[in-house]
Design a protein that fits this description.
The chain contains six helices and ten strands, in the order H-H-E-E-H-E-E-E-H-E-E-E-H-E-H-E. The protein is an alpha/beta fold. The radius of gyration is 20 Å and the shape is globular.
């Protein structure tokens, strides 16, 4: 009987340790960025041709936590009548996505992406200092230990996007 109790305690401790490790591996930053990306859809009007088919969020670079968070969101939410489709690649697609998120490690593709997607209605989002001034529409920044974002209305216009009310009040405006 004593051995059964000891084994039971050992199993409980093992599962508790595993659960604790999973909580520690949780990427809060990925969750925050996924929520931001989804909420950005409420502040932009995409060209008519971008309002059919799936709403594509393409991530350039590798961030498995962000991929997981966006796919969780895609399973329960839509943008208007469009289902959300998350794509991940090392470069941007030939078909313009509604949102192109270029991770910091891949920021060298920004200039080429801007040139190829100009006027096509893709919201280009980045996460490296200075990239809103370099052509991104939105750039994630950390300010006073809080996740914030820079926004360039001029870059949004060049991208072929119409910005809705209220975004300027939430962003660090860069133009």
């Amino acid at each position: 009987m004593r051995k059964i109790v000891q084994y039971s305690l050992l199993i409980i401790l093992a599962f508790s340790s595993l659960s604790f490790q999973q909580q520690n591996n949780y990427d809060t930053n990925a969750k925050v960025k996924a929520v931001f990306l989804y909420n950005f859809t409420k502040y932009f009007k995409w060209p008519e041709k971008m309002r059919t088919g799936n709403f594509v969020i393409q991530i350039v670079g590798s961030n498995s936590s962000l991929n997981v968070e966006l796919n969780k969101m895609a399973s329960t939410k839509q943008v208007g009548a469009q289902k959300i489709e998350v794509k991940n690649s090392s470069s941007y697609a030939t078909d313009p996505p509604q949102i192109l998120f270029i991770l910091g490690s891949e920021s060298d593709v920004l200039k080429d992406a801007i040139n190829k997607l100009k006027g096509k209605g893709s919201l280009i989002v980045t996460e490296k200092p200075g990239l809103a001034k370099a052509g991104a529409v939105i750039n994630f920044v950390v300010e006073e230990n809080k996740q914030r974002f820079e926004y360039s209305q001029n870059n949004a216009k060049k991208a072929g996007l119409i910005t809705g009310e209220g975004l300027n009040g939430l962003a660090i405006v860069v133009d």
